[in-house]
Design goal:
heterodimer, A: 129 residues, alpha+beta, 5 helices, B: 163 residues, four-stranded antiparallel sheet, two-stranded antiparallel sheet, 6 strands
Chain lengths: 129, 163
């Protein structure tokens, strides 16, 4: 679970911080363990141009935020909407599907991202998301 | 007081028009009683009485004393609660600098040391201590000092991994 890439992103997170005038800014927490992730996005013509995240929590949640935000520049909001749980698990490369507790840590950044994007688009997430 | 739950053994008579419930406490004890549980509880009491609760408390105190001694040498470890055995039960909560308590629990698990991480049913206290959670080792009758040695080894490994 604590592969080198996870530890590296936890100790030295990419895209750490906040944006001065974000188009989207959303924060989610995991009440069970207190993990917290806020994601700021700059959007132009439906395309993400810049991103930052701020958070506190375990290595899994924070490394996941770092890895996820690395993927976002140049993506359209529709592409973000299409991102699923399996995409994120592939990205972080840890087999967490049989670990119901820690999978919530890993998925928190994706939940934050999608909730922010949905809020911005004025849409509701599907039941499956 | 009307019964809150229907089931076996909580009625006196049932007719088409009217039901009379059993007297208290039976009317509140619908269904099969916890027979197996009561027998198991008796066995557990016998088991503990045979060893002696004083002996068990003494064993826990020895383990806690040893754990406090060993843990004092772990770099970056913060123990919560009294540092003397006489004011403690069989559990020790702690944090290790730079490692989230849940990560620490997962790493210790990998070393074969089972601990709990979280708020331990006292979230306001964790807020007061300004920690997101703590990791907690609990000792009882069946634990031995060698397990505390393993805990210390696990803590050192975790610290090195995250440093």
């Amino acid at each position: 679970m604590y592969r080198e890439v996870i530890l590296e992103h936890y100790k030295h997170p990419h895209n750490a911080g906040t944006l001065d005038t974000p188009d989207i800014s959303h924060e989610e927490t995991n009440p069970l363990c207190g993990d917290r992730v806020r994601i700021d996005l700059q959007v132009a013509d439906g395309v993400i141009t810049d991103v930052r995240f701020k958070g506190r929590g375990c290595a899994i949640s924070q490394a996941s935020a770092s890895l996820l935000t690395d993927e976002l520049r140049g993506k359209t909001l529709d592409q973000v909407r299409a991102l699923g749980k399996d995409d994120l698990l592939d990205l972080i490369g840890i087999p967490l599907d049989k670990n119901p507790v820690r999978i919530k840590c890993a998925l928190l950044p994706l939940k934050t991202l999608k909730a922010g994007v949905y809020e911005y688009l004025g849409a509701q997430p599907d039941e499956t998301e | 007081m009307p019964p809150f739950l229907g089931g076996g053994s909580m009625i006196k008579t049932v007719a088409l028009q009217e039901t009379t419930y059993a007297d208290v406490p039976a009317r509140f004890e619908a269904g099969t009683p916890a027979i197996g549980e009561a027998i198991a509880l008796g066995e557990a009491v016998d088991f503990l009485s045979e060893i002696g609760m004083d002996q068990i408390a003494e064993h826990e105190q020895q383990l806690i004393g040893y754990a406090l001694d060993r843990l004092a040498d772990v770099e970056g470890l913060q123990i919560y609660g009294p540092l003397s055995t006489d004011q403690r039960g069989g559990a020790i909560s702690f944090t290790l600098d730079g490692i989230h308590p849940h990560d620490l629990a997962a790493l210790l698990d990998r070393e074969g040391v089972a601990v709990r991480a979280g708020h331990h049913c006292c979230q306001p206290l964790h807020a007061l201590l300004d920690v997101p959670a703590t990791t907690r080792a609990s000792f009882y009758l069946y634990n031995v000092p060698e397990e505390i040695d393993r805990l210390v080894v696990g803590l050192d490994k975790a610290r090195k991994l995250f440093s």
